[in-house]
Amino acid sequence: MVSPTSKEIFIQGVTQDGKTFRPSDWAERLAGVMSSFRPGGARPGSHLSYSPWCIPTTLNGIKCVVVHRDLRDHEPMAWDFVVNFARDNNLQVAEACLVPDAPVLPPPAKP
C-alpha cells in the first residue's frame, strides 16, 4: 500500500469508490489521536497541538491527513495505526511530498 521510499502519505477523505468519508471532522480526530507522537516525545500540553508528523489539511476541497514517514521511524505502531485506519475505511492514499508555500516577496522598488 505504501512504498518504503515515500516521505509522506496523504490519507484522503474519499473512499475507493468515490464517496466522501464521514464524519466531516475525521481528519482532525485522527490527527488529534496522533498528537502525542512527535519529535522528542509527548510533553505536558502536547495534546493541545497536532504532531508535525500527522497534520490535518484540505487539498483541492478534500479533507486529508498528511502523515510523515518520520512517524514510522519513531513509532512503528502509530504508523501502522494510521495506515490501517485508511485501509479499514477504504480511503484513498497518495504518496507524495508536501511542498511548502513559496515566501511572498515584496514588489520590486520603483527606480
Topology:
Elements: E1 8-15, H1 26-33, E2 54-59, E3 62-68, H2 69-74, H3 76-88, E4 91-96
Antiparallel strand pairs: 1-3, 1-4, 2-3
Describe the structure.
The chain has a single domain, classed as Alpha-Beta Plaits (2-Layer Sandwich). The termini are far apart. The chain contains three helices and four strands, in the order E-H-E-E-H-H-E. With 111 residues, it is of the alpha+beta class. A hairpin with a 2-residue loop joins strand 2 and strand 3 (62-68). Strands 2-3-1-4 form a four-stranded antiparallel β-sheet. The mean pLDDT is 85.
DSSP summary: helix tally: 3
Strand content: 15-25%
Quaternary structure annotation? single chain
Q: Helical proportion?
A: 10-25%
Strand order of the largest sheet: 2-3-1-4
Mean pLDDT: 85
- Roughly how many Å apart are the termini? 56 Å
**For this structure, what is the CATH homologous superfamily?**
Uncharacterised protein PF12112 family, DUF3579
Give a count of the beta strands, DSSP E runs of length 2 or more. Answer: 4
- The global form is globular
CATH class: Alpha Beta
